[in-house]
Design a protein that fits this description.
Armadillo; mainly alpha; 17 helices; ARM-like; ARM-type_fold; about 60% helix; 2 domains; Protein HGH1 homolog; about 280 residues
Length: about 280
């Protein structure tokens, strides 16, 4: 009993409750920004990019294509903008490219694409939206370009997107963008807070599923092979929303099981097998 009491007293969950929020754990991916580069899916669909087009001098043209081009043109433009804003563009001044994209109307063009509710079977347009969300995430990796994105109602658009869209790849990029927006910003944490229930739903798409007895009995919290990146990015976003924010942490504490709370927010498995305890299945 004494050992159990000591474990509870030193648990990260109790520490977070007492501190009015949570501190991130060492080595957590929530300590920095989530960055994206060109996707194999985009290349498989549209072919390799002409690297000559990845020059900062072409930024205005790419933004124009992202705004009013055909679906394949939108995809090509958004792919280039993703590369220009990622750290893979090692030979370029990435910070400068991000700000040039912002000053040239990039956030508006990309967010307009993401806010579209038009249904389509055009794969190119779906992939273009993925690249647009990836670029928005990358723009939010530094304070000045992040402020430009926030000023264009990015949070509202992304929150509607994660409620509306079903593409797990697109949702992965959108969650990454929301996480970068939440990083070290109480104001953005509060603005994103209404999306916490949906972020929890997205985190649960892989791993433990408390509403499914059979799946919960066999599902593992640590099944990396089953995760396409959506659970990871959604849970990182939850962590960024909870760091130093007591109301957000309290909301998550009320909605998550103890195992989920430890796993998604504190990076801990509930037991050696990483299985959800039977006592939590019906929570």
């Amino acid at each position: 009993m004494l050992e159990q009491a000591n474990a509870l007293n030193h648990s990260p969950v109790r520490a977070a409750r007492l501190s009015g929020g949570m501190e991130d754990y060492a080595g957590s991916q929530a300590q920095g920004s989530v960055l994206f580069s060109d996707s194999a899916d985009w290349e498989q669909h549209a072919g390799p990019l002409d690297l000559k087009m990845c020059r900062p001098s072409f930024i205005p043209n790419h933004i124009k294509m992202a705004r009013s081009g055909k679906p394949m043109e939108k995809l090509a433009a958004a792919r280039v903008l993703t590369i220009l804003t990622s750290e893979d563009a090692a030979t370029l001044d990435v910070s400068k490219s991000r700000m040039e994209i912002c000053s040239s109307g990039g956030p508006e063009a990309l967010l307009t694409m993401l806010s579209s509710t038009e249904t389509t079977d055009d794969t190119s347009l779906t992939l273009a939206k993925e690249a647009a969300a990836a670029t928005i995430a990358n723009l939010c990796a530094q304070d000045d370009s992040r402020a430009a994105v926030v000023g264009k109602d990015a949070i509202g658009i992304l929150l509607k997107l994660i409620e509306r869209e079903s593409s797990e790849e697109l949702l992965k990029y959108a969650c990454g963008a929301l996480g970068n927006l939440a990083r070290e910003s109480v104001e953005n944490q509060e603005a994103i807070a209404p999306g916490i229930p949906q972020l929890i739903n997205l985190s649960r798409l892989v791993g433990i599923k408390p509403d499914d007895d059979e799946a919960a009995e066999h599902a593992s919290l640590d099944d990396a092979e089953a995760d396409n990146g959506l659970e990871l990015n959604a849970s990182i976003t939850l962590r960024k929303l909870a760091i130093g924010n007591a109301p957000n942490y309290k909301m998550m504490e009320e909605m998550l099981t103890q195992s989920e709370l430890r796993y998604f927010l504190h990076g801990e498995l509930p037991n050696d097998e990483g299985r959800i305890p039977d006592s939590e299945i019906d929570k």
